Amino acid sequence: QVQLVESGGGSVEAGGSLRLSCAASGRTFISMYGMGWFRQAPGKERDFVADIHSSGDTYYADSVKGRFTISRDNAKSTVYLQMNSLKPEDTAVYYCAARPVFSTRSYNSYNYWGQGTQVTVSS
Predict the structure, then answer these.
(1) Which of 31, 39, 79, 90 is the most exposed place for a label (fewest CB within 10 A)?
(2) pLDDT of residue 41
(3) Burial environment of residue 1 by CB neighbours within 10 A (0 to 12, 13 to 18, 19 or more)
(4) From CA 16, how far away is CA 8, in angstroms rounded?
(5) How far apart are alpha carbons 45 and 5 in whole angstroms?
């Protein structure tokens, strides 16, 4: 059982930056999971944003590549999403998710989800 709690969301002007955090807890080792970030705008589907493997390898959606950076600190059981050069189109609720390390980045591989944190970017 894994519990995930996101934080760090807020309101920022276009071109600004935010850093989201995802704290994991439970009777497990965070190193056994790959971690991902997803986002969902009102009335839209939940979309993939970024993923980081236990090895540190990362993968990004084309829409955020070069602007967002995912990282992890296993000792703190925390995953981060640094968001730079934010655009109004980035406005959404951002969710942290966990998957077994040997799984793919398929949506159904993410077994645990946080409650989400709101990010609002004004023009």
Answers:
(1) 31
(2) 97
(3) exposed
(4) 14
(5) 21
By the 8 A CB rule, do 37 and 50 touch?
yes
Query: Is residue 26 predicted with pLDDT exceeding 80?
Result: no
Average pLDDT, the chain: 94
Distances (CA, A) of 63 to 7, 47, 66, 87, 115: 22, 11, 9, 10, 23
Alpha-carbon dihedral angle through residues 85, 45, 41, 79, given to the nearest 10 degrees: -50
Beta strand extents in 26-116 (DSSP E only): 33-40, 47-52, 58-60, 68-73, 78-83, 92-100, 112-113
User: Considering only CA atoms, which of 69, 74, 46 is closest in space to residue 59?
Assistant: 69
Residue whose structure tokens are 């056994």 = 32
The amino acid present at 109, given as its one-letter code, is S
